[in-house]
Amino acid sequence: MTIVVGHLATPEGQEALSSAVSEARERNIPLVVVTNGKRPEDECRAEADELVSRLAGDVDVRVEHGTGDLAEDLIRIATSTGAELIVIGLRKRSPVGKLILGAGAQRILVEAPCPVLAVKV
Question: What is each CA distance from 8 to 35, 82, 95, 98, in whole angstroms?
């Protein structure tokens, strides 16, 4: 059992990571952080090293490098790790935007093999 979260350098990504750390600590289960695979590998590796050292005292953390399709990565990794929860971040939207959830978030909510916690900034 794990908690899976995507790591993005956005306010909603940081809020999702913070909530995922809290959930993992509270449930006493490992956290799997999925990095953005669209960046160069050396940047991803440096990001992973920084995340592991920053979070190591709080929770058992592992970093997985994504392929660039965050929704696909989160669903795949949640399935392969037997995740108990996926945590995603959402941003505020305009009144019209509220009618249409982002395609990635919608896909995660529909296809996830476990419950999804959506946090907003």
Answer: 7, 22, 25, 21
Through-space distance between the first and last CA atoms of the chain, rounded to whole angstroms: 27
For residues 9 and 86, what is the distance between their CA atoms, to the nearest angstrom?
A: 18
Put simply, whether the predicted model's pTM sits higher than 0.70 gets the answer yes
CA–CA distances in Å: residue 73 to residues 6, 11, 58, 66, 78: 9, 20, 24, 6, 8
Domains and CATH numbers, the chain: 3-120 (3.40.50.620)
**Cβ distance 81 to 51 under 8 Å?**
no
The Cα 64–Cα 5 span in angstroms is 10
Q: What is the mean pLDDT of residues 2-6?
A: 95
Nearest to 6 by CA among 74, 68, 60, 106: 74
Q: How many residues does the chain have?
A: 121
